[in-house]
Recover the amino acids of this structure.
């Protein structure tokens, strides 16, 4: 089987809601990572086989196949196609999987993958206004067949986050401690320059705007996002932000042709579905299944990135797997660094790759919860 290799990975800073990237058009935000990705690698733009981008809520400035339009806006070759993927929060991680599968099949050799999301301009609820319910309420109940199978149970991320917290015995105070640590790690990593190699400046912004100094006292003062879910506050939820990220994935044939040095090999890709009412629990069974398929155990995994959609999601995963928190989201997670939906998968993988290189680790595992009760898992091997 042909292997898929990661040659480069970069991202913009995460701009807080209504912050430094709020005015940047989504297409330009995508172009901001594609242009340097091509410029700093020894492959002519016209030799790329495809551009695969993740994006959620492809309406407004994010409509019109943003993978293709971002590539063109970056001034790159017109002969290169593009496609946009929506697997909810796992969209750009799935873009990596599609690229890896194309290369492993031998049908393509050079692919730019990534994701983009401007949550300031296209809030997460915008899709509902466009007739595409995201699960903040119970629109699925309008389907007779859905109702027959799942009844009136809400398909709601806040409901799921609360339910997970209660099931695994995780209190609001526990989650606030976890969230504060996410910010502490991100601020420490930024101060130490750990993000410098992975960030490309845009519009004069050179650093992540989302991590912040806080305290348990401040967190305890916050009202829940909904009285129905008393443990779920903004403090224990991922930060809304604007960002993009991109990676270059190639075949062994391309490595030789363009004299490239691979940084990692994509060792495993998989995706698993779980009960949509639990909504956010899927990373647990997905991780177990992925390790079995990859013939590895968590003892083989040096670092883990699991998206901090909510603190309870990661804390339940840690409890269930027994994996070390010290080796999980070591530079902070989405609570501090933001969750730019369609871009998050590649943002996480970019950080995972750079941290494996910094620490000398071999295997890194990435997973995240996704709308509808899904979870992708990727295992990369540093070379």
């Amino acid at each position: 089987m042909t292997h898929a290799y990661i040659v480069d990975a970069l991202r913009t800073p995460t701009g807080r809601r209504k912050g430094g990237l709020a005015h940047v058009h989504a297409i330009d935000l995508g172009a901001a990572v594609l242009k340097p990705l091509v410029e700093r690698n020894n492959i002519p733009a016209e030799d790329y086989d495809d551009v695969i981008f993740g994006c959620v809520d492809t309406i407004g400035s994010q409509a019109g196949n943003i993978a293709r339009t971002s590539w063109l806006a970056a001034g790159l070759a017109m002969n290169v196609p593009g496609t946009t993927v929506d697997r909810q929060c796992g969209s750009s991680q799935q873009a990596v999987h599609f690229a890896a599968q194309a290369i492993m099949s031998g049908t393509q050799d050079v692919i730019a993958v990534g994701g983009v999301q401007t949550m300031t301009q296209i809030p997460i609820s915008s899709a509902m206004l466009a007739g595409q319910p995201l699960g903040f309420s119970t629109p699925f109940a309008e389907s007779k067949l859905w109702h027959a199978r799942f009844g009136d149970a809400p398909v709601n991320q806040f409901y799921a986050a609360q339910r997970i917290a209660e099931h695994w015995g995780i209190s609001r105070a526990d989650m606030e401690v976890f969230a504060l640590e996410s910010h502490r790690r991100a601020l420490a990593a930024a101060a130490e320059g750990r993000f410098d190699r992975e960030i490309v400046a845009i519009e004069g912004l050179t650093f992540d705007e989302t991590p912040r100094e806080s305290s348990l006292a401040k967190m305890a003062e916050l009202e829940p996002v909904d009285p129905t879910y008393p443990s779920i506050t903004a403090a224990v939820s991922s930060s809304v932000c604007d960002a993009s990220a991109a990676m270059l994935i190639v075949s062994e044939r391309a490595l030789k042709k363009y004299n490239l040095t691979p940084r990692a090999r994509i060792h495993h890709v998989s995706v698993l579905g779980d009960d949509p009412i639990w909504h956010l629990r899927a990373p647990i069974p997905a991780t177990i299944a992925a390790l079995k398929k990859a013939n590895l155990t968590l003892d083989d995994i040096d670092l883990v990135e699991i998206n901090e959609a909510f603190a309870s999601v990661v804390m339940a995963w840690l409890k269930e797997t027994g994996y070390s928190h010290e080796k999980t989201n070591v530079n902070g997670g989405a609570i501090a660094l933001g969750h730019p939906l369609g871009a998050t998968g590649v943002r996480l993988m970019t950080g995972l790759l750079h941290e494996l290189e910094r620490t000398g680790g071999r295997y890194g595992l990435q997973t995240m919860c996704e709308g509808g009760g899904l979870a992708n898992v990727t295992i990369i091997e540093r070379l």
Remarks:
- Confidence is low (pLDDT under 50) at residues 128-138.
- The longest helix spans residues 172-191.
